[in-house]
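Supplementary Text 2. Reproducibility record for the structural model of the 331-residue chain.

All settings were left at their defaults, and a single model was retained for analysis rather than an ensemble. We include the record here because the model underlies the residue-level annotations in Supplementary Table 4.
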Amino acid sequence: MKLAVVGATGLVGQEILRVIDERKLEFSELYLVASPRSVGKELIFKNKVYTVIGMDDAVSIKPDVAIFSAGGSTSLEWAPKFAEAGAIVIDNSSAWRMNPKHKLIVPEINAGVLRIDDRIIANPNCSTIQMVLALAPLQQRYGLKRLVISTYQSVTGTGKDAVDQMMQERAGKEPTTKAYPYRIDMNVLPHIDVFQDNAYTKEEMKMVYETRKILQDDSIGITATAVRIPVIGGHSESINVELLEEFDMDEVRKLLSEAPGVKVEDDVDNLKYPMPINSHGCDDVFVGRLRRDESQPNTLNMWVVADNLRKGAATNAVQIAEYMVEHYLVY
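Retained model, structure tokens:
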């Protein structure tokens, strides 16, 4: 298999390579692809030196699988060219997620909808992926009526410039590059992505639309507030879940503990609950602070944490690649 990683020099691109190594995704040839400013750079992967190539060269090679993490505009321009050359494109940007012609995939939930002719497959938003993994077993058992979500998202979700800005602020230095117009360290920014006409941000609306598409239920009421906090390691979410039916808390814990990709960490007597510092480098989605909402019926609260660069991006994309290789690519 000829495998291309597009955006290989970025934070997510580097994480994709680590996940490929860890999960032992087999390939015969690997191509690391990036923007013109990175072409010619050398990257080491599994003790081998690779020279970064450009888009035109990568298309001409006709890779079997291309994992994209290069931004929406790049994906809109280049993903179709890779697909036309015969590649299965798995895209981490928001470019294709809500396109009705393309599937939005979290493998543990809906990989079964994929077919051999799916040549551009969308990877959901990081905050959506971890949430739907925790919600899917509850939806199947009780049905979902409404979600009220507040996120506490790592600066790694913005990228290297934001991480550099925060660390320079933490060291008492003037940031050389500012990803945000305000201080990140020792601060909380209730603003992720651009504001929309309805006063929500694009990030908040992604959680609305993507969740409904993945769970195949447009009737779910969803409202979200997305917040950037000065941490590295993962995104955290407080989710108030109103179900269609009455539930038992012991059954809820059992459903979640048996769900693929989910790890329940809920022992308040011993002060055990999910935290991003512990999720860093992990592929599981951690769920805790499970409790009944005593203010209204059929409602519970949950706290969901995951490494946004792993399951929220790189791992989910590699899992999609694994599924497509296993089911539809024969060598």
